[in-house]
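YM 10:42: Hydrolase, alpha/beta fold family, putative sequence, as discussed on the call
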Amino acid sequence: MRAFIALKRNYKLANYETINFIANYHQVNPMSPITDSWQEDYIITNGVKLHYVTQGEGKLMLMLHGFPEFWYSWRHQIPEFASDYKVVALDLRGYNDSDKPKDVSAYQITELVNDIKGVIQGLGYESCILVGHDWGGMIAWYVAYTYPQLVDKLIVMNIPHPAKFAEALRRNPQQLLRSWYIFFFQLPLLPELLFQWDDYRLIASSFIDMAIDKSAFSEADLNAYKDAAAKRGAMTAMLNYYRNVFQGIFKQHRWDVLPIPTLLIWGENDTALGKELTYNTNDYVPNLQIRYIPNCSHWVQQEQPQLVNQYMREFLAKDEG
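YM 10:58: structure's back
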C-alpha cells in the first residue's frame, strides 16, 4: 500500500478519483476520521462543475476551504456535524476535482460568490449555515453581504472582515509585510514553478512551517494536499484567486452593517494575518462572537479541531429551541 501511494505521488497521477484516495488514506491511517458514510458528488452551477464530499441529513452546513487546500481541510468537522446537518465540504473552483477555468477573470470574487449561491440552491436549499476558512472565509463574507437571505449563520476562521483587511493593507505596514506573498503571486509562471519544485515541497511546508502543533499534519495529510495541487491546471487556478484581489476584494467598497449572526474563530499565532485584524469587527457585524485560540496557527480547524468544533456547537446552539 505504501509503495502504491508513493508511486502515485512521484508520478503525480493528478486524475485519480477522490473516492480511491479516501480508501487508501483510511487503510494507511486507520485512526483517521474518514468513514464509509462519506459520499462524493458533483454539482454544475455558474458554468462550472464543482466537486464536494458530504455526510449527514438535515439543514445544510456548507464548508468552504482556503489556499492551498481542498475539501479535506474539513475532515475533522464533517463527521462531527453530520449527526445534525447535511454537511457539504466543497472543492472551490480551480481546486482538486472541481473545474479549473483557464481565464484569470474566472476567479473574480463575483464568480466565486455566484458559485456558492448556485450550490446552495442547486442542492435544494433556501439557506444554509455557511462556514469558511482563509479564502473560503473571504468568499463567505461576500456571500453573506451579497445574498444575506442565503445565510442563516456565518462562521469564519482566520480571515478578517474584508473592510478590515483592506484597511490594514493601506495603513498597517506590519500587515503589508506579512502579505508579501500576495504581491509575489501577481507574477506570471514563477510562483507556479516555485510551488511545483521538488515534488510540491512548498505546499507541504506551507502547513508544517506555520503550524504550532506540527503533529496535526501527518505525511498522508501533506501528500493529499500535494496531490490535489498537482492536478492539471490546479496550481495556476489556485494562484489566480490572488491575481484578482486588486480588482475585487481590495477594491474600494462600501460595507454596510451585516445583521447575520456571525462567529469569528481565530488562531492567535497566525503568521500571515495579525490578530489586530479582528479588532472592532463588530463595527460591521454587531451580532458577532469572537473566539481566540492561543498557541494555534492559521490552520485553526485542523490544528485545534476539538476547540473549533466546541465553539461552533456553542454558537449554533444559541437561540435555538
